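Fold it.
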Amino acid sequence: MQAVIFDFDIYLFKIWPMDFSGWEKLSLVDYDDNLTMTLFMAGCNMRCPFCHNSDLVLRPHLAPKIPWEEIVSFLKKRQGVLDAVCISGGEPTLMPDLEDKIKEIKSLGYKIKLDTNGSRPDLIAKFHEEKLVDHFAMDIKNSKERYGETIGVPNVDLTPYEKSVEYLIHSGAGYEFRTTSIMEFHDEESFRKIGEWIKGAKKYFIQRYIDSENCISHGLHPIPKEVALAYKKILEESIEQVLLRGYE
């Protein structure tokens, strides 16, 4: 049944215009030390149970729409104050006119960070090679063996995600990989295999899971800090820089 939902979503993305349905007008954590505005697109081709944007993922056609002109007007007023725009979701690479919107933001002098699940390696390459995106943050949901289970899409084809990882590691692009760590989905073997998959990566984050009323599923549990530190040590055997995010 989940695979059918996945296919139907692709159909929805073709008939409904994709818009930004949420924004955070000032973020100090989404893009290093940059003063950042974050945009959230409605719609995704995954069903991760731990996703905290359930309305954007499950009901994109019902999400509120922020007029693009309003976003551009805000960014013009904040020139010289804000440094960057983070484009997130949902999965923003599903937006048909994303390239045009990025070009308009770049024309105002902002840096761009793109949050993505890696399902569109063609766009990742295009955006880097045309200097439209300054930094990519790609989710590594789990080891390859447990990917379908973790994203809620059984029998998923991993080819695009593998291509995105390979490209980012060898392209010279600014990037980071990250995994939201959850006791029900991740264990020592998961992180060992993630390390083998993205061996040679420059930067990787183990993110602490936070349950909220907006998550797709509930009853999941974050991995304790001491366990995350043990996984960090394993990952450091194959990744240049491994950091914890969300752990105090």
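The mean pLDDT is 92.
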